[in-house]
Amino acid sequence: MMHAKHLKYAALLIVTGLCASTAQAVKPATNRDTLMEGRRIYEQACAWCHGIGGEGDGPAGWFIGRYTSPRPRNFVNDGYKLRSTASGELPTDQDLFRVITQGIPGVMPAYRSLNERERWQVIAYLKSWNSAFEEETPAPLTFPSAPPGPTEAGIQHGRHLYVKLDCRVCHGDNGEGDGPEATAGHLRDADNLRIRATNLTDPSAWKNGASSHDLLRTLMTGLDGTPMPSYANEFDGQEEALWDLVWYIQSLSGKQER
Amino acid sequence: MSRPSAAAAIAPLVMTVFALVSGTYAVSVPSAEAIPAFARKYTMNCAVCHTAPPRLNTFGERFLENGYQLPGTEDGGITAKKHLGDLSLDDFANHTGGRLRGNMLRSHNFKRQSPPAAEAGTVHNNSELGFPEIFSLFTAGSLTKNIGFFTELESNMEESSTGIERAFVTFNNLGGTNVANIRIGRMDPSATFSFSTLRQQLELVGESMNTSTDTVQRAGLFPLAASAKFYGLRNRSGTAISPYAPSLYNAVAETGIEVRGRPFGDWFMYQVGMLNGANETFGDSNKGKDFYGAVRFDYARSANFSASLSAFAYLGNSNATVLTGAGQADVNWHRYGMAAHVRYKMFDLYGMYTLDRIAHVPTAALANFDTSASGLSVACDRPYAPLTAIRQHGYRRGSQPAHVPKLRRGSDQTIRAVQCGPVCSKRLQPPTSRRRQCSGP
Amino acid sequence: MKALLILATVLFAVHDASLSHAEPPTGTLVGRILYVGPAIPEQVIEVTRDTAFCGAQTTHRAVAIHSITRGLEGAVVSIDGIALPASDAAMPPLVLTNIHCAFAPRIAVGIVGQQVEIRNDDPIMHNTHISMGPRTFVNVAMIPASRPVGKPLKQPGIYTVKCDAHKFMQAHILAFTHPYFRVTDETGAFRIPNLPAGEHQVTIWHDTLGTIHQSVTIPAQGETQITLEYPKHADARKQ
User: What does the pLDDT read at residue A91?
Assistant: First the structure.
């Protein structure tokens, strides 16, 4: 009887150990040491734009946008733009890890030279400024998997959706960011700064990523703090239509990345 | 040969320039140093490092100090994903930036000259085509972790000269993060100072000299605190040093080695260096080396604000000569200075005060030669996208030849420079009859 | 042992009974919010998109005053600081509708935990963007006759509602941690029942005129009547 119990415990320990050794093995617990290390890295690498207090007012942060969007993220008050969670929700830790690793084209360098442990430490530190992370548990949306590939009919349907869903109002007829609302200067971000509608013909400049999965994620989550809404409600139960729209948008730049 | 009278010896030289220059993202840069290669490597726009190129914001300053690696990291060779011995031509091209610089069309019109009609024949010219004037090729970046490099090849068509302007290698984060960084080669000592010679919006405009009478007909345009200030100084090969040439600690390019670091945190930086000195392009014609040391205190935390205060001492060792009846005599030319900068959002204010002393002047030359001079330069840039308004005041005391007319504000020596934006570049300025190059004799 | 148990149960039952028969608070605050300042004319706002459906222009009454009572419509009266009894009562959703190129209601009030339900009853697309300060609450595209989007209110405070496709549309949602609030009707009148007795601070908020604070004393039973006037009592700061 006791022998079997011990075996059970051993098995449980081994399984737990194996699980822990995959994906997030280097993610340290959020304790005082982690936060101190995170603070050290933050103050050497991040505070120039994000400010010593995380309010997005670092000495070098203003010039990125000057009088237009974007400003560096304010970790104390703001919501977050680049996520895999529903509209209005906080990002997951994996979202923050992705942004630090890949950077944001044009405005934030990629910090992949910091090792993974250091990146997790910095994430723990910048989360510590916003009490909402303690109150809310962000959960990623379920993203539909991709069909085998774009079809001509699918892209045509995507064009039809692009017009029906008023994408052209901001992004323009050919996706160049010159829609009527954009050219009229009506688009403002959460700080009331002028913001441009993304040029869909240039995926390398997309802040949320250029792959088809990134594009799908952007459509589903919306970009909080900007006029870009979430379309998750409209595509609920219509995954194929969503992918048609993704293929169409990618066809605007003549590139199809999976 | 300059013959300053005693009365004129301490006459001040004051110059005020008000200019509108565009300082938008990268393309059209009035003077040296914005590097598009870094923007490509990190997929950034230029504003991440520059306020208005070539002026750096605090992030850009720390990037430069870290040997062109992201501040707080040692990502040389990692981000580019190549290692030494594995480089290809594409990699090299990715590190390279080129720039053509010049005036499309320039016109000048001297109303007053000293003596009158001194530059007859070149007084009025409305249609001089001057592009391209200077072609620079930069290669810079990090070779591998903690090893950085910079080279600038410049071809000046006006002067028909091509040469390496600057070239150096850096070894970073020795002994710990930002404890010691070494720079070896031909470099600008004041790169990390609160007032950096090369990080000026206004381009150097040399003075207009009448070489037969050795008189200055029009003052040059450059921060006077950084300039040589003295008339009658020559380098070791006997060529006169222009009083408007940036010199010593504030030189554009000197050959030497320096160590620099922030071992106690961002708030304090030390810098110690040794140069061949003596304004020599290559080699050292004397045994003596020039030494310099600098300290800098920084405040850069939040509220879109940063400030710094720096001080330096530069001790020359037979780094210039003066003419006496018996020929050239070595002198020791020292400089001490302080500078400060304040930056708030779009507003960039910086200033420097320098005090030069020449020691070891032979008695025979002392009667005709001031042994001290001082300079004060204060500049303020404020971009009004896409234009930048620049105001620069220069003030120099000491070593003034008697026959330089006193400059008044609004006289024809006031320079107005307008640059429209990335596409067009149109500058109106009285040109020099002999443009003095920043580096070399 | 058993006898003691029975006694304890009986005592508990009696105690419970006494609790369930406790008197709920019956104080009531009634009143009227007036505006006695100079007349503010209706603003004519140009319609920037979908003029075929929305019309070329729309009017916005920043200050809606009743012609007879001079009552102010759309002011939110609330009382904070009252300890709330536990309540598991299900709350109906707070419905916010895009209709005729405007939000209805323009001033919505709800309780933290209550579900906001966004609908689109127009034949054109709307993009309903609700945020509190820099933090987005929800930003969703709503196609014509779209399925409603629901999200519970988690934070108390004042939310701004706008439509990114139609700049002229605007609304507010005020969320409270208690049920002691009302929006004034077209005569400027309001009535807040079930208040406990005592001294309370009343807050009146209007999206254009700002905030007024007033102390009132609520009796144990019966009504207290107050009348407050904008702009006389208003704070210099506007919300």
Answer: 96
What pLDDT shows up at residue A13?
A: 53
Helices first, then strands: H and E counts in chain B: 4, 19
List of domains in chain A: 28-135 (1.10.760.10), 152-251 (1.10.760.10)
Q: Which amino acid is at B4?
A: P
At B35 the pLDDT is 60
Q: Mean pLDDT across the stretch A104-117? A: 90
* pLDDT score at B51: 84
Does B310 lie at the interface with A, CB-CB under 8 angstroms? no
Whether C11 maps to a domain, the answer reads no
> Which chains share 3+ C-beta pairs under 8 angstroms with A?
B, C
- Strands C76-79 and C181-183, by their bridges, are antiparallel
Q: Which of B79, B177, B345 sits opposite A44 (nearest CB)?
A: B177
Is C94 in a helix, a strand, or coil? Answer: strand
Residues 106-125 of C with CB under 8 A from A: 125
Q: pLDDT at position C223, please?
A: 85
Owner of token pair 């040389």: B76
Distance (Å, whole) CA A75 – CA A55: 6
Q: CA C136 to CA C134: how far, in whole Å? A: 6
Inter-chain touch A113–B74, beta carbons under 8 Å: yes
Rounded to whole angstroms, how far apart are CA atoms A150 and B207? Answer: 66
How many CB atoms are closer than 10 A to CB A210? 18
Taking the Cβ of residue B263 and every Cβ of chain A, the question of whether any pair is shorter than 8 Å is answered with: no
CA dihedral B413, B418, B424, B430 (to 10 degrees): 0
Which A-chain residues 86-115 have CB contacts (< 8 A) with chain B?
A: 103, 105-114
Secondary structure of B273-336 as H, E, C letters: EEECCCCCCCCCCCCCCEEEEEEEEEEECCCCEEEEEEEEEEECCCCEEEEECCEEEEEEEEEE
pTM of the model: 0.82
A45/B72 CB distance under 8 A: yes
Interface predicted TM-score (ipTM) of this complex, two decimals: 0.84
Answer whether B346's CB lies under 8 Å from B376's CB: no
CATH code: domain of residue B190 = 2.40.160
- Taking alpha carbons only, the member of A176, A148, A104, A126 closest to residue A243 is A148
Kindly give the parts of chain B with pLDDT less than 50: 1-11, 18-33, 80-84, 88, 401-441
Q: Which chains touch B (3 or more CB pairs under 8 A)?
A: A
**Helix H or strand E encompassing B38:** helix B36-42
The radius of gyration computed from the CA coordinates of chain A, to the nearest angstrom, equals 21
> What is the count of structural domains for chain C?
1
Q: Does any domain span residue C8?
A: no
Residue A145 contacts B where some CB pair is shorter than 8 Å = no
Specify the CATH number for the domain of residue C218.
2.60.40.420
- Kindly report the CA angle at C51 between C50 and C54, in degrees rounded to 5? 85
Task: Pick the residue of B69, B302, B343, B346 with the most A CBs within 10 A to test the interface with A by mutation.
Answer: B302
Contact B311, B337 (CB under 8 A): yes
Beta-bridged to residue B375, according to DSSP, are B354, B396
- The SS3 call for residue B91 is helix
CB contact under 8 A, C147 and A228: no
Eight-state DSSP code of residue A230: B
In-domain check, residue C5:
no
Distance from C-alpha of C164 to C-alpha of A187, rounded to nearest angstrom: 7
Averaged pLDDT, A101-108:
91
**Number of domains into which chain B is organized:** 1
Distance of CA A219 to the CA centre of its chain: 11
Q: C36 is in which domain, residue-wise? A: 24-230
User: Residues of chain C whose pLDDT is less than 70?
Assistant: 1-23, 85-86, 88, 232-239
Tell me, yes or no, if A143 comes closer than 8 A to chain B by beta carbon. Answer: no
